[in-house]
Design goal:
7 helices, Pseudouridine synthase, S4_RNA-bd, rRNA pseudouridine synthase activity, 4-stranded antiparallel sheet, 309 residues, Structural Genomics Hypothetical 15.5 Kd Protein In mrcA-pckA Intergenic Region, Chain A, isomerase, alpha+beta, PsdUridine_synth_RluA-like_CS, elongated, RNA-binding
Length: 309
């Protein structure tokens, strides 16, 4: 929005060139002042004037100043530890580190996958809400591993439908407390927001149908390493379901994990990693599969447990 100013020429500017007077009055360069005059944005006693005209003290100036230039949007910062596993014209697969969310959310000031992609020069699909463009599924901030993001509009549409129809295969590894009984099983229990309203989710009668399949890969004295396949993709699903059967993910203090065990293993978050992701490529219609190794903190916890057995 332009800014209109009206004032008399001060005594101290008597006899100055008009462009010099405007420059001094408004803190502009002589060139910018001359441009304003040429554009007809400066009137002297109600009439246009030339930049070289001399001004008289007391003459009335009407000046229309342009709006200040808007500050450029801050450039997204690279996300340390986030790697691009695969990229083509339609999709990009990232290996997400801990402490990173998929897209901007209310109250989150930390790094996001979208920021990391933009900083790396990756363009994503514009479909979806503005703050989550290209995002077809998410991982919790402190869950690491594989995420696919849509780059093309057709990929966004096809992948959103694939996740909804459960044709995307998501495999996680989780280190949980104790030993699930049976060692292999299915948890079929509805999930919704916890009645406390504190941000947790819980098994709630009438919640959204949620199905988790698990299998024990390795058993330790105090914990078990599980392979988990999700049939549904609810928020915090694995964490809620494992807590519900009294085997929370190691380090997951929000869902009842033992802080002493977490501290002993050097785990400062839930031990949960999206280790494998497979689906049909949205435009090439071929099966694709990606795998991710354990991050250092999760690997170290397993080393400690194996040394104790």
């Amino acid at each position: 929005m332009s800014d209109h100013r009206s004032m008399p020429v001060p005594d101290g500017l008597e006899g100055e060139r008009l462009d010099a007077a405007i420059a001094r009055l408004f803190g502009l360069s002589r060139t910018r002042a001359a441009d304003l005059i040429a554009e007809g944005n400066v009137l002297v006693d109600g009439a246009t004037a030339a930049k070289s005209d001399r001004v008289s003290a007391g003459a009335w100036l009407d000046v229309t100043l342009p709006p200040p230039p808007s500050a450029p949007a801050p450039r997204p910062e690279p996300v340390p530890g986030m790697t691009l596993v695969y990229e083509d014209a339609d999709i990009v697969v990232v290996d997400k580190p801990t402490g990173v969310v998929a897209h901007p959310t209310v109250g989150w000031t930390g790094p996001t996958v979208l920021d990391g992609l933009l900083a790396a020069g990756v363009t994503v699909a514009t479909s979806g809400a503005a703050e989550r463009q290209g995002i077809v599924h998410r991982l919790d901030a402190n869950t690491t591993g594989l995420m696919v993001v849509a780059k093309s509009e057709v990929a966004y549409s096809v992948l959103k439908r694939a996740f909804k129809e459960r044709t995307v295969h998501k495999t996680y590894h989780a280190l949980v407390q104790g030993h699930p009984d049976p060692l292999r099983g299915t948890i079929d229990a509805p999930i919704d927001r916890h009645p406390s309203g504190d941000g947790r989710f819980a098994v709630v009668s009438g919640g959204r149908p949620s199905v988790t399949h698990y299998d024990t890969l390795e058993a330790f004295r105090a914990a078990s390493l599980l392979e988990i396949d999700l049939e549904t993709g609810r928020t915090h699903q694995i964490r809620v379901h494992m807590s519900a059967i009294r085997h929370p993910c190691v380090g997951d203090l929000l869902y009842g994990a033992d802080p002493t065990l977490a501290q002993r293993l050097g785990v400062r978050r839930q031990w949960l990693h999206a280790v494998r992701l497979s689906f049909e490529h949205p435009t090439e219609h071929r099966p694709v599969e990606f795998e991710s190794p354990y991050p250092e903190d999760l690997d170290k916890a397993l080393e400690i447990l194996r040394a104790e057995t």
